Amino acid sequence: MASPSLSSFAFASQQVVIYAGLFIFTAGVIGGPLVLIVFLSLRTFRQSSCAFYLTIMSIVNTLHMFTGLLTYIMLNGFGINWTNMSLFYCKFRPFFVQLCASISFTCMCLAIIDQFLATCSNPRWHQWTNIKIARYIVMGVGIISILHGIPFIKSYNHTISSITGTFSCAITNSIFYKYNYFIFLPVIIGILPVIIIIIFGILAYRNVKQIAYRAVPLVRRELDKQLTVMVLVQGFCDVIFVTPLIIQSVYSLIIGIPSDLDIMIYLNSILNIIFMVYYCHFVVGINQFKT
Q: DSSP assignment, residue 226?
């Protein structure tokens, strides 16, 4: 039986999931359509490849609120596990969550790379900041993400947990389990995007500091500055929101699954808080562009 202090901590983390999670969910669902109105109503944004990446990111972030965050709130806040109720949803949710997360972080990286290229002093790099090229790239990213999600559909099944003895939706393929927790979560949607964001964010910031001294039309100069500020703010927030999840993933890889029930409850409670911080990425990615 868990100690009173541990039970209080677990209850507190549950309340964080309920109240913080519902706030994040509401902000994301309301903010998504407003961002689309802003981006699609202004011609300058409709013709910008960077704004196109941010628009796609806002769309998938909004969709992610329903399948990813809402299901997490119901499970860890109210104890209602929708994935146990349907084999279809058990397979669909992991597929769709990885699809949205992969596209979201990829579009963020593409947006910040796009602004680096758009603000370069060498005009040859500017040809890659093209809305047509951006559309083809996003289509390719979508296809790759869908194909990447097929193993998620095959590997998630209803099973009985060997630890708790309860019926649950879990990965039944040991090879895919290692890939998901050793590579996909900590590296593909963790360390790799953070590294790209930091590197190209610094380079884009340096370019913007020098753009005032170049012979660039005033309208183009101001648009580049505005978009660069947007992606830099988003990139900075991503580093803050994703880093705790990276640390937790690496820590879990080192210590493995604890056998002590109290330690497991403690780690799961911390993980609830970390995931609320992580989901802030999807809300900031939606709502910061309204300002």
A: H
**How many other CB atoms are there within 10 angstroms of residue 189's CB atom?**
22
Residue 215 pLDDT grade (very low, low, confident, very high; cuts 50, 70, 90)? very low
Count of CB atoms situated within 10 Å of the CB of 228: 24
Contact 285, 64 (CB under 8 A): no
Pairwise CA distance, residues 90 & 94, whole Å: 7
Residue 245 binned pLDDT confidence (cut-offs 50, 70, 90): confident
Reply yes or no on whether the pLDDT at 222 is more than 50. Answer: yes
Distance CA 290, CA 7 (A): 40
Per-residue pLDDT averaged across 202-211, rounded? 81
∠ Cα 215 216 218 (to 5°): 125
Distance, in Å, from the CA atom of 261 to the CA atom of 75, rounded to the nearest integer, reads 19
Q: How far apart are CA 226 and CA 239, in angstroms?
A: 20
Percentages helix, strand, coil for the chain (3-state, rounded to 5) are 85, 5, 10
Structural domains of the chain in order of their starting residue, each with its CATH number:
10-290 (1.20.1070.10)
Cα distances (Å, whole numbers) of residue 43 to 39, 46, 128, 132 = 8, 5, 20, 15
pLDDT at 289 over 90: no
Helix axes 131-155 and 87-118, enclosed angle (nearest 10): 150
| Six token digits for residue 220 | 């183009």
pLDDT at 291: 47
The DSSP call for residue 288 is G
**Eight-class DSSP state of 119:** T
205 Cβ contact list (under 8 Å, min separation 6): 228, 232
Kindly calculate the radius of gyration of the chain based on its CA atoms and give it in whole angstroms. Answer: 21
